[in-house]
């Protein structure tokens, strides 16, 4: 799986993260806990300036093509984004259209903090990184944990606002509510795909007006959390004993027996169901939160994301894709649990 993080000449990645959990790629600079915006931008070397320039025509030798007046020929319907480095050098990023408006990484992150009611001096930044040689930027703001049944199982679901922007004319400004922590290009995409609320603004002249509407669109403060919490706590009330008709009904709905299956297919299905049942009892599921619908739902999700017979890249890819059979199976599981009532 490609992380797409920018790697410096010394092999270090332009990425920083709160050290409570190391990213899968083991790259970047660990920081002691959540950090301020300034600290994270500096650690990830992400506080660079992007300049919008004209585009001139050059020949194969890199020499300017000149017009009759001896001036470089300018491509009128195209411009370029260029990164200005602190050492005085420049890096080309992309060609963009005439309507493109630059918004610096810092500005996009500052506006995201305003959306969630934080200031740039609050220590709420979990990750921060540079992608594709500076052409894209992302950060994760920690919104605190959503607590499912605080007086009972006290299960905590991490909540984040994933912030991303591009300087390539392709990737817009995006803010997304999700429980996925962004640590690379793929997890940014995963978080966007699984987001309950996503706000997008193109890099055009009306971008400021659009960004002002972000808080209303995202409804950050309560609605998504309330809906998610209600569904989870409803599943918590549904008893699903380890050996019962209820668990059989859920698993047979999600992993149905085929009328024409071969002996090999039947054996594989039996082995998979046996594995799911064994996972159900562990401390991450029923062992920690009781034998109920919430636990069996999380068991099936754990199996689909981590334990089924496939390579890690294929499993991660399927989990990222909101149209994949894995995503459909997760929704089927939730519906099967709720149908037990």
Q: How would you describe the overall organization of this protein?
A:
- There is one protein chain.
- The chain has 341 residues and is of the alpha+beta class.
- It has 3 domains: 15-47 and 103-218, no CATH class; 49-96, no CATH class; 237-338, no CATH class.
- It is 36% helix and 22% strand.
- It has 12 helices and 10 strands.
- It has helices at residues 37-43, 105-115, 185-193, 207-212, 214-218, 223-236, 245-254, 263-280, 286-289, 293-307, 312-320, 325-338, and strands at residues 15-18, 29-31, 49-56, 74-84, 90-96, 125-131, 136-148, 155-166, 173-178, 197-201.
- It has a 7-stranded mixed β-sheet with strand order 2-1-6-7-8-9-10, sandwiched between helices. It has a 3-stranded antiparallel β-sheet with strand order 3-4-5, with no helix packed on it.
- Helix 7 packs antiparallel against helix 12 (325-338), helix 8 (263-280) packs across helix 10 (293-307) and helix 10 runs antiparallel to helix 12.
- The chain is elongated and about 85 Å long.
- Residues 187-192 have low confidence and may be disordered.
Concise summary:
With 341 residues, the chain is an alpha+beta fold.
Low-confidence stretches: 187-192
Could you report the average pLDDT, rounded to the nearest whole number? Answer: 83
The assigned structural class equals: alpha+beta
Strand order of the largest sheet: 2-1-6-7-8-9-10
**What is the gyration radius calculated from CA atoms?**
24 Å
List the domain count as a whole number. Answer: 3
Q: Major sheet, described briefly? A: 7 strands, mixed
Could you give the count of β-strands?
A: 10
Secondary-structure element order, as H and E?
Answer: EEHEEEHEEEEHEHHHHHHHHH
Number of helices: 12
Helix content: 25-40%
- Our estimate of the beta-strand percent is 15-25%
N/C terminus separation: 41 Å
Tell me, briefly, the overall form: elongated
């Amino acid at each position: 799986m490609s992380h797409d993080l920018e790697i410096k000449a010394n092999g270090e990645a332009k990425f920083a993260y709160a050290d409570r959990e190391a990213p899968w790629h083991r790259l970047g600079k660990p920081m002691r806990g959540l950090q301020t915006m300034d600290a994270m931008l500096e650690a990830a070397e992400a506080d660079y300036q992007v300049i919008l320039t004209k585009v001139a025509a050059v020949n194969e030798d890199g020499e300017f093509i000149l017009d009759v007046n001896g001036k470089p020929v300018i491509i009128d319907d195209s411009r370029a984004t260029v990164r200005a480095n602190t050492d005085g050098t420049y890096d080309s990023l992309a060609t963009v259209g005439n309507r493109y408006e630059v918004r610096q990484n810092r500005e996009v992150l500052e506006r995201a903090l305003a959306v969630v009611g934080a200031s740039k001096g609050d220590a709420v930044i979990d990750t921060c990184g540079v992608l594709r040689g500076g052409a894209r930027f992302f950060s994760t703001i920690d919104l605190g944990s959503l607590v499912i049944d605080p007086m009972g199982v006290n299960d905590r679901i991490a909540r984040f606002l994933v912030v991303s922007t591009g300087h390539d004319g392709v990737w817009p400004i995006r803010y997304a509510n999700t429980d996925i922590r962004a640590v690379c290009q793929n997890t940014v995409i995963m978080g966007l795909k699984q987001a309950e609320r996503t706000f997008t603004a193109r890099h055009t002249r009306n971008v400021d007006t659009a960004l002002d509407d972000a808080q209303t669109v995202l409804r950050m403060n309560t609605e998504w959390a309330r809906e998610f919490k209600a569904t989870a706590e409803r599943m918590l009330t549904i008893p699903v004993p380890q050996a019962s008709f209820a668990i059989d009904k859920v698993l047979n709905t999600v992993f149905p027996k085929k009328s024409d299956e071969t002996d090999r297919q039947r054996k594989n299905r039996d082995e998979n169901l046996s594995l799911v049942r064994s996972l159900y009892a562990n401390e991450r599921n029923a062992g920690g939160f009781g034998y109920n619908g919430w636990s069996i739902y999380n068991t099936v999700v754990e199996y689909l994301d981590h334990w089924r017979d496939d390579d890690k890249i294929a499993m991660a890819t399927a989990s990222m894709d909101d149209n994949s059979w894995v995503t459909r199976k997760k929704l089927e599981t939730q519906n099967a649990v709720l149908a037990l009532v």
